[in-house]
Design a protein that fits this description.
Layout lengths: L4 E3 L4 H8 L11 E4 L5 H6 L7 E4 L8 E3 L5 E4 L4 H6 L1 H6 L1 H8 L4 H6 L2 H5 L51 H7 L3 E6 L2 E6 H4 L18 E7 L6 E7 L10 E10 L2 E10 L6 E2 L1 H7 L6 H11 L11 H19 L2
Parallel strand pairs: 1-3, 2-3
Antiparallel strand pairs: 4-5, 5-8, 6-7, 6-8, 9-10, 10-11, 11-12
Bound molecules: flavin-adenine dinucleotide (FAD) and iron/sulfur cluster (SF4).
The site of iron/sulfur cluster (SF4) has 15 residues, from loops.
Length: 333
């Protein structure tokens, strides 16, 4: 780890000013915000992240979880994953988020990890985390060691010839199915970004992961009023705890009798970003709950999958994950 300066702003304005010196919020940067530190500090120890200045945002007033006048929920960017998962409104109206959070990491990590930090957690691609190897995400233009290397955990959807890294988050899959919006304050003022527009596909610039710009602070995440009365998050992984997803699925739906009136489908572990499947939703919308429809939805969701040398098994695994999540969600509806 290299030496760095440390500052603790007490207002969002001060944090924006300090952060604006960063080259981009997702690139090798001179300035980094730190929240729970569970991603950033690890990467600093590995010399993957080498900020000259660390801006601790923990004194900013961004930790509250509050209902909105419209019946939604605003989750402060500094709300800890453990507190969000146990919040009574989340448990009642957004259970898919609680399930996703509780499936991730460990109790100790969830006590530290924040909503904003989780949105920006980095890939677990082993080559990204080891500076000996070429990695376009860590060092643009250096090459991708995972294509043709160890890629069992990596993505099969949204990949490019320059990067096949998967987005590792569970939280963000649930937030995608819930159609969350992200409130950002930065040098350009305040803006609200739908989560589906927040993450970028790798293309030829895998070092750019989101639409955030230098100095942008994630202030909160807003969940719209609950539209689906039932939901489910299913995570499939190599061991039952403390492991990232090989494939996961978040379902939010509302039934009228056996008819699917509203449905949102998102997948994790398989995409280069939290993966909303409009294709699956299209198959399911307005149809009757039945196995054949679920299978067709899963086929549609994975039709563009492009596996690498070691992760072809994920195509079938993700389909089965989606079908099982739909069975569970509709069984309890
Ligand atoms: C051993 C281990 C196992 C894990 N297992 C899982 C798992 O199974 N599932 C899963 O989903 N996650 C898992 N995680 C990841 C964990 O969820 C993340 O590390 C955590 O959510 C990051 O939050 P943080 O607050 O600690 O972020 P930090 O490390 O503080 O920050 C992460 C990034 O976000 C930026 N940032 C933070 N807050 C803001 C903000 N408000 N505005 C702008 N930028 C910000 C920082 O600059 C940094 O680039 C695991 C982590 C570890 C170490
Ligand atoms: S898959 Fe992406 S993160 Fe992994 S080595 Fe290739 S460029 Fe780097």
């Amino acid at each position: 780890m290299e030496t760095f300066q440390f500052s603790r702003p007490t207002t969002i304005g001060q944090a924006i000013q300090l952060g604006a010196k960063a080259s981009t919020a997702q690139q090798v940067a001179d300035v980094r915000f730190v929240a729970g530190g569970t991603t950033l500090v690890d990467l600093m120890k590995l010399n993957v992240e080498r900020p000259r200045q660390l801006v601790d945002i923990n004194l900013l007033p961004m930790e509250k979880i509050e209902t909105t006048a419209e019946g939604g929920l605003v989750i402060g960017a500094l709300a800890r994953n453990a507190d969000v998962a146990r919040h009574p409104v989340v448990l009642r109206d957004y259970a898919v988020l609680s399930e996703a959070l509780l499936s991730g990491a460990s109790p100790q990590l969830r006590n530290m990890a924040t909503t904003g930090g989780n949105l920006l957690q980095r890939t677990r691609c082993v080559y990204f985390r080891d500076t000996v190897h070429a990695c376009n995400k860590r060092e643009p233009g250096s090459g991708c060691s995972a294509i043709g290397g160890h890629n069992r955990m990596l993505a099969i959807l949204g990949t490019s010839k320059d990067c096949i890294a998967s987005n590792p988050s569970d939280q963000n899959v649930a937030l995608t199915a819930l159609e969350a919006t992200i409130q950002v304050e930065g040098p350009r003022g305040k803006r609200t970004i739908p989560i589906n527009d927040f993450y970028l596909l790798p293309g030829s610039t895998p070092h750019r992961e989101t639409v955030l710009e230098p100095g942008d602070v994630i202030v909160s995440v807003t969940l719209p009023p609950p539209r689906g009365v039932k939901s489910h998050y299913l995570k499939l992984r190599d061991r039952a705890a403390y492991e990232f997803a090989l494939a996961s699925a978040a379902i939010v739906l509302r039934l009228n009798g056996k008819k699917i009136e509203h449905v949102r489908v998102a997948m994790g572990g398989v995409g280069t970003r939290p993966w909303r499947s409009l294709e699956a939703e299209h198959v399911l919308q307005g149809r009757t709950v039945e196995m054949e429809t679920f299978r067709r939805a899963a086929e549609a969701a994975l039709k563009d999958a492009r596996p690498a040398s070691e992760n072809g098994f994920k195509v079938e695994l993700a389909k089965r994950c989606l079908v099982r999540a739909l069975v569970t969600a509709t069984a309890t509806a």
